[in-house]
Amino acid sequence: MGLYRTELKTSFTAHLARHQVQDEVCVAADRVTLRISMLLRTTYIVRARQPGTCGYETVLAHERKHEAVDDALLAEQVPLLRVNIADALAALPPPYPVPTRDVGAASAELSELIATVVKRGASALFAARATRQAQIDSALEYRRVRAACG
Description:
By secondary structure, this protein is an alpha+beta fold.
């Protein structure tokens, strides 16, 4: 009877610092910027339910629960995600000197480690979202929506 649709996306940028001493370079994570966005948020309701009717308003209220879950999840989880990612990045092996000729490989390796950390954090966010959204779509909730207007 209704559908809440959103595109929740994450992306990140890693800035690496290079410290050179003679013919060796240490590559370290200087800054990691994580972006979380909801590019699209749309609620659909079947045409048979006309705006202003009990059926329409009941379905709309259900779909707005999905919106509220996303809003609450982001408010709760983004600060936690930042801490978790920062902790995981801090736990990475410390920078070590490599010959100048190997700086590209060292940078690529560090970038891959950072990507793994960020993707793990983002996956946890998406899993938490899926769990919470599924709780809204319970059999009890669907019965309530169907019975709301008599």
